[in-house]
Amino acid sequence: MACPLKNLLFFFLFTFLPFPTTAQTYRNISLGSSLTALKDDNSSWPSPSAEFAFGFRQIAKDGFLLAIWFDKIPNQTIVWSANGDNLVPKGSKVELTVDGEFILNDATGKRIWCTQSAGSGVAYASMLNTGNFVLANGNSSNVWESFSYPTDTILPSQTLNQNGILYARYTATNYSTGRFLFSLKPDGNLVLATTRFPQNTPNQAYWSVKNPNIGFRFIFNESGFMYVASKNGSLLSTISSNTVSMQDFYQRATLEYDGVFRHYVYPKSTSSSAQRWPKVWSTSSSPFVPPNICTSIMESTGGGACGLNSFCTIEEQGPTCQCPNGYSFIDPEDERRGCKQNFAPQSCGETSKEETDLFEFQELNYANCWGGDYALFEGVPEDWCRQNCLDDCFCAVAVYNSRGQCYKKRLPFSNGAIDPNITGKTLIKVGKQNSTVKWGGGSITEKKDNKTLILFGSIILSGSGVLNFLLPLITYLVVSRAYSRKARVCQPYPVISGMNLKHFTYEELNNATNQFKEELGRGASAIVFIGVLASDNGKSVAVKSLDTSVRENDLEFKAEVSAIGRTNHRNLVQLLGFCYEGEHRILVYEFMSNGSLAGFLFGEPMPNWYQRRKIALEIARGLLYLHEECSSQIVHCDIKPQNILLDDSLTARISDFGLAKLLRIDQTLTTTGIRGTKGYVAPEWWKRLPITAKVDIYSYGILLLEIIFCRKHFEAKVEDEGQMILADWAYDCYKQNKLHELFKNNDEAMHDMKMVEKYVMIAIWCIQEDPSLRPTMKKVALMLEGTIEVSAPPDPSSFISSIL
């Protein structure tokens, strides 16, 4: 059933478009009034509600900013400023002259800023409750207002017309014009773009909402709704929306110095004592745009999100700039200026080859620095790529990916980013003498082998032939005993041969789980409990206890330990240990704080489109590892949302390997009884055909459709029978170009229908009845990444309904 888009549009228009509000109480500022910048002086002009204030704020040792700020909260956040590029000293004065001009002069009387409103009939000024500072004439019409000249922030009831611009601050504490802008362009498109920085490089848009020739005004209304409207007021595109009341919250939307446009709220409650805006808020989309600035800014000229020779990564607090090993920030107070080398570069003279022993590589996984390549080699092994860069005095960085491509780059390198969606690794050539890694504001000292150091020290200290003999011998015995003691302390229980797994006693796990009281979830033959390991600094774990009354559980236990015990991948849940004691069969996993993908997909609120795409790719990468990168190929056999868990950062982890099948390197198929969960089971299971890794591809295809549309694969309680089976309905809508009918209240995905269509096509390829038509997991991952094109899939409808 199609979404009632027309009704939805009218709802937005009548609910969110700005209408005249009740008259505000004005606290007029008369002609001839002035304020002086004085240290430790809070003189300002407040709004009638006292929620905003206009005046001077000291933001540097000898520098004052003429500004507007939130005045009722502990962190008096600045939302507008007049002289960010030119701070004024103590004694400077702002004055509303008798001629109606608003002037800022420094302490010597030099004019710094003015409104150029003389002769416009200004009768008074006023700081309004909206956060707008106005100059008004005798008819109370605004002659000048701060809302028409925003700096980095927009407030509720404020609009940006065509050519309206927000400029980010330079740094968190420097209010001069920064590196990024937010603008409604004359062509009607809303964009985030770099400014002419550094070295006057051309502006480059890194995020946009297309409204060609009709986008007239960007509006932020009091309900927290931000959108672009046409000249006649109709809604064109939304930036954020809201379904709850904002009456009890202050709001602002700010283009931060890191280039991210964020929507903030802060409780008006007088009991709130937070020193910062406590949450970034939005419901229908990511709480900020772009969702990942590290990979959004890819400048052909310029340094990217963090400057030259630097890497950008997204952490909980936002984008962070980091210098690689052997590099340091050019300006520690301004990390986005980039990084400089702290070691002598490799020379290109006659001794160039001899100097290769003086250099090594720092390896960064999930990293890239786009652009600036001067050489590309394809189909080469990683060791060859490393050696080629090491032998080349011009090569400062090599980027190697899973397709066997080796890119070589000179200094300075640009657009550095670290992100889980990046495939391949970046190899940075550094001098070996640099033993300190400058990384994320800290330093990590490279550890030397204790035994080598002690032996080396013994040789240096020995002063005679006897000492030369005895000291190394004593050292060897001491070190051997220390290592033996360490081994006994760290491994109190035996491990399975070839696996780094701990053997827990039942008593340990009974105590860790408080007698198996707090249940996380349960299946047909197992219950999962949360536990805390006293032996591991209170680390939280998930303890899976298999039902001993189920005869097959011993086989399932052994299958799970065998399958996952030797794996190590960021998109697989890590098995920490087990208990195989008497009748007890218990598995101990790392704890996933955000539960299963099922709860995330089908709960409230709906996860945003960016998160869903990220999760789909992470699951694909986990399966690719199982199918092609393990010593023994692992077929999971039970891929479904309940078996995908989410960690603290919402990274997807494949779990529950109880039904997994291991295949030798030379073995491509197996035959066995039906395994898996109804609705996700591939046709070859019930046809009793040989089983290959393609059964996981089929299950992944069904799961991918669920991720795309946030809907279960089968729903009996629908009015239209044609919508009961998601795969059937999705294919029908795909063929009829009606994929939008599958979405409910998902504006973000609706604005990215080309990507939605591509993901649906990938899913349909995965659920082909003939296993040979299904792509490999490697090809699926490449299609999701956009590396290879996705062709139109054939019709799968002949078999989907027959297997449910």
TrEMBL record:
InterPro entries from the UniProt entry: Bulb-type_lectin_dom, Bulb-type_lectin_dom_sf, G-type_lectin_kinases/EP1-like, Kinase-like_dom_sf, Prot_kinase_dom, Protein_kinase_ATP_BS, Ser/Thr_kinase_AS, SRK-like_kinase
Listed GO MF terms: ATP binding; carbohydrate binding; protein serine kinase activity; protein serine/threonine kinase activity
Annotated positions binding ATP: K544
Cellular localization per UniProt: Membrane
EC number annotated for this UniProt entry: 2.7.11.1
Residue ranges of every copy of the Protein kinase domain listed in the record: 514-800
Alphabetical UniProt keywords: ATP-binding, Disulfide bond, EGF-like domain, Glycoprotein, Kinase, Lectin, Membrane, Nucleotide-binding, Receptor, Serine/threonine-protein kinase, Signal, Transferase, Transmembrane, Transmembrane helix
Domain Bulb-type lectin residue range list: 20-148
A GO cellular-component term linked to this record: membrane
Signal peptide positions on this chain: 1-23
Keyword field contains 4Fe-4S: no
Membrane-related topology note: Single-pass type I membrane protein
Catalysed transformations (reactions): L-threonyl-[protein] + ATP = O-phospho-L-threonyl-[protein] + ADP + H(+); L-seryl-[protein] + ATP = O-phospho-L-seryl-[protein] + ADP + H(+)
Entries under SMART domains matching the protein: B_lectin (SM00108), S_TKc (SM00220)
Family: Belongs to the protein kinase superfamily. Ser/Thr protein kinase family.
Name the record gives this protein: Receptor-like serine/threonine-protein kinase
Organism: Pyrus ussuriensis x Pyrus communis
